[in-house]
Amino acid sequence: MKKMKTGFGKLDFLFTVIVGAAVLVTIIPFLNVIAMSLSSPEAITRGSVWLWPAGLNAEAYKAVFTDLSMIWALVYTIILTIFYTVLAMILTVLLAYPLTKNRLRGRKFFTFIFVFTMYFSGGVIPEYILFKNLKIINTMTVLVIPGLLSVYNMIILKSFLMGLPASIEESAYLDGASDFCILFKIILPLSKPILATLCLFYAVFRWNTFQDVLYFVTNSKLYTLQLKLNMLINITQSSELTQFEGANPTRIAAENIKSASIIFATVPIVLVYPWLQKYFVTGMTLGAVKE
Amino acid sequence: MKKRVKCAAVMTALAIGSACLTACGPKSDNTEAGEKTTLRVEIFDRGDVPAGAGTITDNALIRWIQEEFGDPNNIQMEFVSVPRDQEIQQLNVLMSAGEAPDIVFSYSYNTLYDFYKRGGLADLTEYVQNSSNLKNILGDDILKRGQVDGKQVMIPGRRILTGRMAQLIRQDWLDKVGMKAPETKDEFYEVLKAFKEKDPGNVGEKNIPWAISASTPYFTDLLYSFAEWDEMSEAERAVTPWPMKPGFKEGLRFMNKLYNEGLISPDFALDKDSKQMQADFANGYVGFINDDFGRPLQSGSYYETLKKTVPDAKLTAVDTFNDKDGKHPKEIYTPVGLYIVVPASSDNAEAAVKYLDWMAQEDVLLTMQFGWENKTYKLDENGFPVVLETDEAKKLHWYNLGFDIAVIVNGKYLGSQERSVEFNAVATGENKDLYIDCYKNSIRDGWEPVTLPPNDALIKYETNISTKFTELVTKSIMAPSAEFDSLYDKLQKEFVEVGGKEVNEAAVKQYDEIMK
Amino acid sequence: MDETLKCERLKSRRAWRSTSGGWNIKRDWQLYVMLLIPVVYIVIFKYIPMYGVLIAFKDFNIFQGIFKSEWVGTEMFQQLWTMQDFRRAFRNTLMLNVLDLAVGFPVPVFLALCLNELKNLKFKKISQTLLYLPYFMSWVIIGGIVYQLFSTNTGMVNQIIKAAGGEVVPFLTNKWYWVITYLFSGIWRSAGWNTIIYMAAITGVDASLYEAAEVDGAGRIRKMISITLPSIKPTIVIMLIMQVGQMMTIGFERPYVMGNNLVMDFSDVLSTFVYRLGLQNGKFSLSTAAGFFQSVVGLILISSANLISEKMGQRGIW
Q: Which of A64, B121, B319, C193 is the S-S candidate for C135 at Cβ 3.0 to 4.6 Å?
C-alpha cells in the first residue's frame, strides 16, 4: 500500500476556504439571535443589534431558565422525541426491509399504498374525529403514534438497503439464517450511517413540528417546546390582532427573551448530530464479502 | 340539535367500520349523574401563563368563577383553550368533531354569520330578554348588531374605546424649524418638507419625516380625507370599495408626491410587521407618525425607548388630515369587540347566557379584569386599580387573563368610557395628557365601517379585491411621478375587473335594502 | 456429495433471487410479519381519515359533517381554475420549485464532497454542525435577517453598494431580483442540512476503490469525480426523484415571510393563496380542492420521475 500524501497542499487550502466561507455565511442568523438574546430590549427595538450584543446582559436567560414551564416543556419534549424516534425507526426498518426483497409477492403494491399516503391525506377534521374516538386527544400518544412513519424516510432507507451487495445476505441465507436474523444481525449493523441519519431526521421533525400539538393538545403541560416558542413569537407578528383587540395590546414578551427562548429551544436538538457522528464511520461494507 | 351532530359523528365513525374505533363516547362529560350541568367556555391561549399561576384552564381566577357562579348555580365550569392565532381553524375543527364549547366567540363576524346561515347557532333571544345586566352593560345598539333576521344569535361584546389611530409629531423638531403644529394637509406638507430640509433631529441620511409601514391603516386616514363625499350617494359613501370612490386617486397622488420627495419611509412596503417603523421612531429618526392611539404611550413601548435615545424628545398630538369641509374624518372601530355565540348543538344555552349575564356586573368585571384588591391590585386616589407587578401577584392574575376571560367587554371596563380613558391615561404616567389628547383626536369625526352580512359577491371576490387593494396602494405610492397616472389607472381598472364591480353593485343594493 | 450440495445451493440462490412465483408464505412469512405492523398502522392512521379528501368535492357544511354535506362534484375545482390568482399561484409554485431544484440541489452535494476532503477532523466536525444551524431557525427569523441585509434603501448590502458608488439593487422590491433573493435564502438555510444525507452516503463508499485509484495514479479531484460522486449516485437520484415529487407542494412560511405587495406577481404561491382565501366555511372546500389538486399532480410527477430514472438504468423508488 502506497503511503498517503500528508501535509497541507493547495487543494486542502481550497477546500478549507470553501467550507470556511460557507460556514461564515450560514452562521450569521444564529449569531444574530445569540446577540439579541444577550442584549437589552431597547437596543433591539432600535435595531442596533446585529452580530454583537448591545447593552450586554443575561437577564433574558435568567428569565428563561427560571421559567418552570419552559424547563418542563424542554424535559417533556426530550422524552417525547426519544420515544418517538425509537418507535419510528423500528417501524421504518420493519417496513423498508421486506420491500427491498424482489421475491416478495405484492412488493410493488405495498410500496404504492405507502407512497400514496405521502400525497393524499384526509386533513385535520377526520383525524381529529379519529383521535377523539380512539381517546388519544390531549395525550402524549397523539403526538407519537399518528405521525410515526415517514414514507419519505422509509424510501431513503429502502434505497440504501437495496444498494447493499446482495451477496452478503445470500451467504447468510444459504447458511440457513432466517429473515429476521439477517435483518438484525447483518443488515442493521451495516447500515449505521443511514440509520443514524434517519434518527436525526425523525428527531428533528418531532422536535420542530408543532402543528399537530396545536390542534390535538390543549393541556398546556403537554405543549412541546417549539409550540411554546411559536406562541411567544407569533403573538406579536400579527399587528392586525393587536388592532382587533383594541388599543390595549396584549402584553408581549421582550425581544431579548424571545431570542433567548429560541436559543433555549434550539441548542438541544442541534447537539444531536455531533453526538450521532460517531456512527458515520466509513468502510462498514468493506471486507464483509469475499467472493 | 345536539343529537344531529352526534349522529353525524357516529355515522362517520361507523361508516369506516374499523375494528379499532370505539363507539362514540359521551359528548364531553356533560351529564354526570344528572346533577350538575357542565358549561364549556372557550378561552384564548396565548402561551403566556406566568410561572406558578397554574394553566390557562385552571388558575385562581377560574376557581373563583366556579365558587362565585358555578357552585351557587349548580354548574360545573370547564374552560376549553384555543390557541389565539389559530382560533378560526381550531373552531372549525372542534365544531366538525361535535366538540364545540357552549360559549364560543370570534372577531370574525363573517365566520359566525356563515355558521348562522348553516343553522349552527342557537337562538338566544329569549334568554337575553331576561338578562338585565347584559342589557345594561351592552345596551340596545350593541345588542342589535348581534341580531340576524330578528333573532339574537350573537351577543356582541362591548368595545370600550373605539378610537383607532392618532397622530403624533415631534414637538422639539417643530420648535427647531420654527413652525406650529399642522392642522391641514397643506400645512402638513410644508412641515414635512421643513423636517427633511432642515433636519432638526440632526440625523442626516436617516431622516424620515413621516414613518409608515406596509400595513395600510397607518396611512389610510390620509387617503380617505381626499374623498369627494358630495359626489357619492349615501350607499356609496358607506359601502363602495375605496378605489372606486371619487377622490381616492388624489389621495394616492399626494402620497406619491411625498414618497418621491423622500418624505416617507423608503422601504415601507417591505415592513410587514411594522418593526422597521417602530425602530426608526425609537431611534429618533422620525418626525411624524400615525399609529394606534394608545400604543406609543404605553409602558415598555418604543416611545419610552425614544425618550432614552433622545431625552429632549417631546411629542404632541395633532390632527391634520382634513377634508374639504374642514373635518378630520378617521376610521374608528365599531363599538363591538368579540361576537359571542352558542352553538346550536349545545344543550346549555340558558346556562351560557346566565353566565354572561352574571359577568356583566361591575364588581364581577372588576375581579375578572384586575383580580383581588391588595393581592393583585391597589386602588389609587382616583379609585383606579393599579396592578401590582410582583411575582406573587402574577400567580393569581395576569394582564392577558383578564382580557380573555371578560369576553363581553373589549378593554378595561370601569363604569363608563370616560373613566376607562382616564384610567388608561393615568397608567401611562407622565404622558397622561398626551394620551387623552390622542384619544380625543382618534374619535373626532370618526366614522365606523359598515358591517353588512356578507353577500355572495363579497365572499367570492373578497380575497381578490383585498389583495388588489394593497397592491394598488403600494405600487401607486412608489411609482415615479411621471408614471403615476398610467399606473394608477391600470391597477384601478384591474381592481374593478377582478371583482370590485360585482362587490360594489351587490353591496350598494344590499345597503339600500337594509336602509329602506 | 459435493455435487448435490452445490445443486442445492444453486437452487436456493435462484429461489432467493427469484422475482416471479406466487405468494410463497412458507419462504417469506417472516417478511410478511414484518410488514404487518406498518400496514395496520397505515390503514388506521392514514386510510381511515382519508375520507377527508371528499371535502374537495362537496360544499362542506361543518354542522352536517363530511358525509352529509352537499356533493358538488368538480365545482370547487372549476371555481379554483377560474380564479386568476389561483393560476398565477400554480405557475409560481412550479417556477420557484423548479428553480430551487436547479440552483439549490447541486449545492449540498458539492458541499458534502468538499467536507469529505477536509483533513482536519476537528474542523470538519465543527463545520458540519455549524453549517446546518440556519435550518433550525424558523423562516420568521431568517426573513427578518434577509430584510435587514437586503432591503432597498436601508439594507446593509445596499449601503455597502452605495458607499462603493453603485446603484441600489432592488433585491426585495423588484420581482425578478426577488426570485434570486428567494432562491439564495433557501440555499442559505437548507444547504447545510441537506449535506447530511450525502455525508452518510459517502461513508458507505468502498475504501478499496480509492486505493485502487491511487495505484492507477489518480489525483484527488479525479478520485472525487470518478469514485465518490458515482458511488453516491443512487442517493442523489433518489433525493432528486423525491424532490421532483414535491414540485407541487411549497411551504407557507418562506414565500409568506419573504414576499410583499410589490412582488406578489411571483411570490404568491399555492400555500399563500390558500391562506389568503381564508378559512371561513365556504372556503374549506376550496382550500381542500387546491390541496387535492396539488396531491394529484405531485403523484403524477413522482411517478414520471421514477419512470424516467428507471429507463435510464437507475433504481427507482418502487
A: C193
Tabulate helix, strand, coil % of chain C (nearest 5).
75, 0, 20
For residue C10, what pLDDT is reported? 64
Q: What are the pLDDT digits (tens) for B346-376? A: 989 999 999 999 999 989 999 999 999 888 8
Q: Report all structural domains of chain C as residue ranges with CATH numbers, in order of start.
A: 22-48+79-311 (1.10.3720.10)
B12 closest CB neighbour out of C65, C268, C282: C65
CA distance B282 to B303: 6
Q: Do C203 and A281 touch (CB under 8 A)?
A: yes
Of residues B83, B93, B305, nearest to A46 (C-beta):
B305
- The grid coordinates of residue B469 equal 387593494
**Residues C46, B18 contacting (CB under 8 angstroms):** no
pLDDT tens across C142-162, in order? 888 898 889 888 888 998 898
CB B110 within 8 A of CB B454: yes
Shortest CA distance from A90: residue in chain C: C38
Q: Residue B29 has what pLDDT? A: 43
The verdict on a CB contact (< 8 Å) between C261 and B470 is: yes
Whether the CB of C220 is below 8 Å from some CB of chain A: the reply is: yes
pLDDT exceeding 90 applies to what percent of chain C? 44
Cβ neighbours around B409 below 10 Å, total: 24
User: Which pLDDT belongs to residue B15?
Assistant: 35
Of C154, C262, C280, the CB nearest to B269: C262
CATH 3.40.190.10 domain locations along chain B? 2-13+25-160+335-405, 165-331+429-451
pLDDT-derived band at A20, boundaries 50, 70, 90: very high
The reported pLDDT for the residue numbered B196 is: 94
CATH architecture of A77-279: Orthogonal Bundle (1.10)
Q: Give the Cα separation of B23 and B60 in Å (integer).
A: 36
pLDDT of residue C186: 93
Which chain A positions have a beta carbon within 8 Å of B295's beta carbon?
242, 247, 249
State the DSSP H helix or E strand holding residue B94, giving kind and residue range, or none if neither.
helix B87-96
Closest Cα in chain B, distance from residue A114 (Å) = 19
* Closest B-chain CA to A47: B279
Check CB contact of C82 with chain B, cutoff 8 Å.
no
Instruction: Please tell me the CATH code under which domain B2-13+25-160+335-405 is placed.
Output: 3.40.190.10
Look at residue B170 and give its three-state secondary structure. Answer: strand
Please give the pLDDT value at position B17: 32
| pLDDT tier for residue A158 given thresholds of 50, 70 and 90 | very high
Chain A residues whose CB is inside 8 A of the C201 CB are 160, 193-194
Question: pLDDT tens across B413-433, in order?
Answer: 888 888 888 888 887 778 888
State the CATH architecture for B165-331+429-451: 3-Layer(aba) Sandwich (3.40)
- Kindly report the number of other CB atoms within 10 A of residue C226's CB atom: 14
Q: Start-end ranges of CATH 1.10.3720.10 in chain A?
A: 77-279
Please indicate if any CB of chain B lies within 8 Å of the CB of A115: no
Question: For cell 394593497, what's the residue?
Answer: B470
Picking from B268, B219, B495, B466, the residue whose alpha carbon sits closest to that of residue C268 is B466
- Chain C contact set for A12 (CB, 8 A): 117-119
Between A157 and C7, the more confident residue is A157
Per-residue model confidence (pLDDT) at position C15:
60
What secondary structure letter does DSSP report for B44?
E
Helices (H), B147-207: 171-177, 185-198
Question: What are B483's three cell numbers?
Answer: 408614471
Three-state secondary-structure class, residue C317: coil
- Give the best residue of C9, C54, C61, C119 to mutate against chain A (max A CB count within 10 A): C119
Distance, in Å, from the CA atom of C48 to the CA atom of C50, rounded to the nearest integer, reads 5
Of B81, B217, B411, the CB nearest to A218: B81
